[in-house]
Structure prediction request, 136 residues.
Amino acid sequence: MSNHRFFLYFLIMYLFDQLYVSVYQKVKKLKPRLAAKAARFYVSLLQIGLLLLVGVFFMKFSKQMKMNFLTTPNSWLLFVGITMVVLFKNWVGYSGKKRSILFSKASKPGAKHSLLWLVVFQLLVYALTFIVSKAA
Prediction:
């Protein structure tokens, strides 16, 4: 069971790395000086959105099961704390050596993902979070 979690973690991290490279390459064509910040912002926003989606789902689930182990203000405080950790992790992780390794591993010089699909994917995550938050 531990090997599956390990594999899933690296599969998801690989996805975020590929999205970082795609956004970086797309933005670099338009604004070279802002490419690293924009790519880091995109990946951070996506990870925070997914975190919010999972958090809202579990809050709704625990509310329906009548389990009151975490109050709403405490859950928002936990969310803000984890958000700060995600931002710091991405700031440290996507600067310097790791970024150099990511670009050396990139197989094609062009971006793999369309800018339209990158934006749509981001919007879908937040739309799904909104839908789950409004569910019974």
Q: What stands out?
A: The CA atoms of residues 71 and 122 lie 28 Å apart. The chain has a mean pLDDT of 84. The radius of gyration is 17 Å.
